[in-house]
Amino acid sequence: MKSIVILISGRGSNMEAIVQAAIPGARIAAVISNRPNAGGLAFAAAQGIATAVVDHTAYAERAAFDAALAEAIDSHAPDLVVLAGFMRVLTPGFVRQYEGRLINIHPSLLPSFTGLHTHQRALEAGVRVHGTTVHFVTAELDCGPIIIQAVVPVMAGDDEATLSARVLAQEHRIFPQAVRWIVEDRVSIDGNVARVAGVREPGVLISPPPENV
Ligand code: GRF
């Protein structure tokens, strides 16, 4: 049985998708938030999952926060740490400590649109496709080996709300898929490339084409 700790900062819909996937061989040991009022904490607690808050505002320095966070994580001895809408940049020391067992979901087709406000920036750039990426976390922000991506169309009339909703639906598909592959020991890292054993098309799920095109 693989033990998983999920870190959230807010609503927690990706965490929920992973919990509801009920991945065989995986146990969600804890959900930890850096914000006491994160909506996702209530869902996790209702599922009987241990929850904890490590409030970043209580720490003057990033390194002190990361040390407290690591302590909370390590008390569950996880095989995998999942950043599911966790909105804090982690120190290189923290990332190194969990390298190879720390994954994140980012709401763009990396390496495009690293950082924040990805949907608005995609609209402003006029891209025709957008999407989401699950990747291993490395010291460089949003740059680690890609495990899976999902592509969605950008449609005429889209605004940030409609585009982000279309992407979020795909996040809820690919994140549990990536966790499942890791739990099944199928994912290996080769330089900056993640490989998935025994899957013909390991990288991309394309959302169904919109009906009105
Ligand atoms: C998601 O769009 C994720 O890609 C981004 O933050 C959002 C979190 O949503 N990093 P939720 O908390 O999982 O609902």
Automatic annotation (TrEMBL):
Sequence ranges assigned to domain Formyl transferase N-terminal in this UniProt record: 3-179
Q: Which UniProt keywords apply?
A: Purine biosynthesis, Transferase
* Coiled-coil regions listed in the entry: none
Gene Ontology cellular component terms for the protein in this record: cytosol
Q: Which InterPro entries does this entry report, sorted A to Z? A: Formyl_transf_N, Formyl_transf_N_sf, GART, GART_AS
* Cleaved signal peptide residues: none
Under CDD domains, the record lists: FMT_core_GART (cd08645)
Return the Gene3D superfamilies for the record: Formyl transferase, N-terminal domain
Listed GO MF terms:
phosphoribosylglycinamide formyltransferase activity
Q: Return the annotated site residues (Raises pKa of active site His).
A: 142
Positions annotated to bind N(1)-(5-phospho-beta-D-ribosyl)glycinamide: 12-14
What Enzyme Commission number(s) appear in the record? 2.1.2.2
Pathway info: Purine metabolism; IMP biosynthesis via de novo pathway; N(2)-formyl-N(1)-(5-phospho-D-ribosyl)glycinamide from N(1)-(5-phospho-D-ribosyl)glycinamide (10-formyl THF route): step 1/1
* Class of enzymatic activity (EC top level): transferase
Record carries keyword Ubl conjugation: no
Q: What is an example of a Pfam family matching this protein?
A: Formyl_trans_N
Active site location: 106
What PROSITE patterns would the database entry show? GART
Catalysed transformations (reactions): N(1)-(5-phospho-beta-D-ribosyl)glycinamide + (6R)-10-formyltetrahydrofolate = N(2)-formyl-N(1)-(5-phospho-beta-D-ribosyl)glycinamide + (6S)-5,6,7,8-tetrahydrofolate + H(+)
The entry's function note states:
Catalyzes the transfer of a formyl group from 10-formyltetrahydrofolate to 5-phospho-ribosyl-glycinamide (GAR), producing 5-phospho-ribosyl-N-formylglycinamide (FGAR) and tetrahydrofolate.
Q: Which family does it belong to?
A: Belongs to the GART family.
HAMAP family, per the entry: PurN
Protein name per its UniProtKB record: Phosphoribosylglycinamide formyltransferase
What gene makes this protein?
purN
